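Narrative of activities, Objective 1.

The group set out to show that a structural description can be obtained from nothing but a protein's sequence at a throughput compatible with the screening campaign. Below is one input-output pair from the validation batch, recorded exactly as produced.
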Amino acid sequence: MLTPHDIDALGAGAAASPDALFEAIHQVAQRRVGAGLVTAMRHDEAAATVERLYSSNPQAYPVGGRKLKRDSDWSRHVLVEHRVLVSAGDDAIRHYTDHATIFGLGLHSCVNVPLVSAGHCVGTLNVLAARPNWSEDEVAAVRVLGLAALAGVLAPTR
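Output recorded for this entry:
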């Protein structure tokens, strides 16, 4: 789980800027769950799109990248039903349209956390790892990081 040091790092990031907060989330996710990739997305419900606000690997997943997320199992689960999605193992990752890129980075599992405010999904925090499985404690840690990421997505400077 998260330590007081992790919480201090998240607080300092939040006080500085959304980008600093997302970078702190990335650093904590690396330490606590072995994250190989962290992205934060803003959800535009009306347009059914998500836009990347942060990427720990901007070469593979550039900031500003957009994806249409209309009427898919993923969008219903995460964006509409506001449920965390754990995609464990290669078979689960193959359902992502960008699975070749994910595998190319040596990643084999993902946790997608919906970022919900006032009953609406305003974004997602996505944490990927090289291992194929996640423990309940690791998923819980990523969910807590999602609460921190919500502040970055809602920040007025974005």
